[in-house]
Amino acid sequence: MNRILVIEDDPAVIELISEILEMNGFHTDSASNGDDGIRLARKNSPDLILCDINLPGMNGYQILEKLRREERTATMPFIFLSAASSMRDLRKGMQLGADDYLTKPVSPEDLLAAIETRLSRKEQIHKKYVAELSLTKQALEARQMYDADTGIPNRHLLTQEIKNIEPTELPAALYVLQFGRLEYLLESMSSENAANLIRNLISRIKSFEVDNMRIYRTDRVSLAILILNGDLSQITEFPERLLLAFRKPLSWADHQFPLNVNIGIAVKSRPDEDTGDLLTNAELAIGVAQQQGQNSYRFYSKELYNEVVERISLETALGTAIKRQEFILHYQPKMKLNTNRLSGVEALIRWQHHKLGLLSPFKFIHLAEQNGMIIELGDWVLDAICRELDQWQKKGVSSPQVAVNISGKQLDDEGFIERVEGTLERFGINGSHFEFELTETILIDNPKRTAKLLQKLKTLGIEISIDDFGTGYSSFSYLNNLPFDKIKIDRAFIRDVTSDKQTAAIATSMINMAHSLGAKVVAEGVENREQLEFLRDNGCDEIQGFYFSKPLPPELLVSFIRY
């Protein structure tokens, strides 16, 4: 039942209007002055107000002004009912926001018609408002549940859908893909180009046409794939197919950018298994996959959970390891093939953990890069090498050139060059005693800036080597613009160089290409004489590997050099 407030100082008029309205199904309230009328309007929120103009104290115009200023009463339909009927009175009422103007005496028909018109209009406005509100709500929900750039479901919707997975005999699998170096690309692009790049990644996944597969964007550089009611063979084979799909570099601005992806997988294989932790477990598996290196995957398991706990424990201990002097350096000799003599060494860090014993860098370097400790650790390595070089020189030992691995985070650090220069000056060591090894993926992330930084290092006498060459799918066009002295062919190409013709051809091409650019070639992972002879016959300059020597502690290296 609609409620109507009548503000009128004549009791007879109030009685008459109330009777007409109540006979036609309206509920009425009445007030004889402006103060009471405003109080009732605030209290009862009437659907419409009928108001006289000439009232004692506050007139009708003043009442309307006050009501229109308050949020709660501002939109209430308001009809003036007055004996004043001049055009001036009508205009003034309309300017203040009145919805209609009736002149006394008014017939019941005209009164009811005016009321019905205003209430009908109010209902239309309300329906339109509700419809717009519903559309706005849907748009907000879509924004919350779908990625704004690509329109695919996002992390919020994935979380909901995981909770709603029904228990079936068929397994469900969640794959979370995290793309390395993608953040740098996205930041250098317009929003439209960035969205197109992500769509390119999505289209590679869609090309598989797997049943019951849905793709999500879980954050800026991650995608997720949920497969429901799959079979276990399909689920276990799918990660390899994904890695293969992302081997092809991304093309943008006439450049080729290699894709690095790690995949974490969580599987619900039994109907009674809880699905609530699928996303958490898959993301835990990514962290372990990253420990294995680029372009790798891991399935979540209880054993993997234990690995994560161990990793967290190591990360915590890493924070105090430098202060406790728990790190040591070993050095792996390199041989010059045309003389069979020592050409240099590579410094390899080890962690003498107070509980776990001697740990290889594969156990902790990635952790140091993730938590930022690689900067401090890298400074310690350089300092330790300079200290040992200084001691060897004082003992009359011919100091070899020392190769040091440099991470991308070190190179990106603003004070890196200055600290290198300061360390060399402090120990009085010439930069020519050093060779800095950087992976090709680091070198091509920002080639112009990288070229400037490398040139500064070369002015200190430091040589530059491209490590793990051939594993990053980089374009040779980058190499032309970078000041480097050597490339190191990754052990993956050396392992099969005498048994696989294609691998042999690739290795030979790398050697020829490097020489054409004026660079020397170092082959790592040489383990037998057949590999050595192949490399010598094809013009390789240096080798490194167990065939020549395993990594040695400083005291044994001194004996090796003197021998």
| DSSP strand tally | 21
- Percent of residues in helices comes to 40-55%
Write down the Rg. Answer: 39 Å
Shape descriptor reads elongated
Order of strands across the main sheet: 13-14-16-17-18-19-20-21
Structural class of the helices, strands and pairings?
alpha/beta
For the sheet with most strands, the description reads: 8 strands, mixed, barrel
Total count of helical runs of at least 4 residues: 22
Q: Provide the low-confidence segments as ranges.
A: none
Strand content: 15-25%
Overall average pLDDT:
87
State the end-to-end CA separation.
107 Å
Fold topology:
Layout (H helix, E strand, L loop, with lengths): L2 E5 L3 H13 L3 E5 L2 H11 L3 E4 L8 H10 L8 E5 L4 H9 L4 E4 L4 H38 L9 H9 L8 E9 L1 H6 L3 H16 L6 E7 L2 E6 L4 H14 L4 E3 L2 E3 L2 E9 L9 H15 L3 E4 L2 H20 L5 E10 L4 E13 L3 E3 L5 H7 L2 H21 L7 E4 L2 H5 L3 H12 L6 E6 H6 L1 H13 L3 E7 L6 H5 L5 E4 L1 H4 L6 H16 L3 E5 L4 H9 L4 E3 L9 H9 L1
Parallel strand pairs: 1-2, 1-3, 3-4, 4-5, 11-12, 14-16, 16-17, 17-18, 18-19, 19-20, 20-21
Antiparallel strand pairs: 6-8, 6-11, 7-8, 9-10, 13-14, 13-21, 14-15
Helix pairs in contact: 2-3, 10-11, 13-15
